[in-house]
Design goal:
Helix content: 55-70%
Structural class: mainly alpha
Strand content: under 5%
Order of helices and strands: HHHEEHHHHHHH
Radius of gyration: 24 Å
Distance between the termini: 26 Å
Number of helices: 10
Length: 264
């Protein structure tokens, strides 16, 4: 990735990290008008950055979060002693004669700070597999797939525009957003030879379609009573589940009112 593309990904990640805080803080200071203003500005900025990545830098199917979180255990480099042992041909492992268990040789034990408790072969395989995944180029998108990804990127803006035209109680914004999401996924489903990261992103988008059960006005008219009843039954009749379901019952109404939680 080029330096400008990395900067775009960084700014996009920052926006996704602070969007909920910005919405709640603006609503507390400037009220409902300020809240919707910051929502529109953040969604507009995210759409511009994602369209630049898609159309200018050919980034392909974009993931959320844009920058994959760092796994420090897998990124931990080998100790120089391990490298010297590999180059000198020393055996790093010992296989038990009766148990066939693979254990690390005492001669190749690293310092405590860089020590891990897994098999050396498994660690090297996971590191090489992770490096290979990170170095995979995005799958080239044709015209149909580019349109589908553009629809997915601009869907929040179209939803906000429809909210301004028809109001928050209307079914039209909810239906428009659902149609755009399903259409985008249907067009992208024809892609073959996707890498692992892109397949995981499409699965994530498919699972997020369940959020439409929690989005107004469907939630207000159909889902709310049924979901709360189910959580209450689980809390009352299933031992131990109440520790999770009762706080969830209190949290769900507040979560549902935050735009970036259920629409962002």
């Amino acid at each position: 990735q080029s330096l400008p593309q990395q900067k775009l990904l960084t700014w996009l990640s920052v926006l996704e990290c602070v969007e909920v805080f910005a919405e709640m803080g603006t609503a507390r200071v400037w009220g409902e008008m300020g809240r919707w203003t910051i929502i529109v500005l953040i969604q507009l900025a995210k759409a511009i950055l994602r369209l630049l990545l898609l159309l200018w830098y050919k980034a392909g199917i974009q993931t959320s979060p844009p920058i994959v979180p760092l796994n420090r255990e897998q990124q931990q480099p080998l100790h120089p002693q391990d490298v010297e042992d590999n180059s000198s041909g020393k055996d790093q492992t010992y296989v038990g004669k009766r148990s066939n268990r693979v254990v690390r040789s005492l001669q190749s034990t690293p310092f405590l700070q860089s020590r891990h408790w897994g098999s050396p072969q498994l660690r090297e395989e996971s590191q090489s597999r992770r490096v290979e995944e990170m170095n995979q180029l995005p799958t080239p998108l044709g015209l149909q797939e580019t349109i589908a990804e553009s629809v997915y990127i601009t869907r929040p803006l179209l939803h906000l525009l429809s909210l301004g035209v028809w109001g928050q109680r209307s079914w039209k914004p909810w239906l428009l957003s659902a149609i755009l999401d399903i259409s985008s996924l249907s067009l992208l489903s024809d892609l073959k030879d996707l890498n692992r990261r892109e397949r995981a992103e499409l699965r994530r988008r498919t699972i997020l379609l369940l959020y439409y059960l929690l989005r107004s006005p469907f939630y207000d008219q159909y889902s709310e009573g049924r979901i709360l009843l189910l959580l209450r039954l689980l809390a009352d009749y299933v031992p131990g589940v109440g520790f999770v379901t009762r706080p969830l019952m209190d949290y769900l109404p507040a979560w549902q009112k935050i735009y970036f939680y259920n629409w962002g």
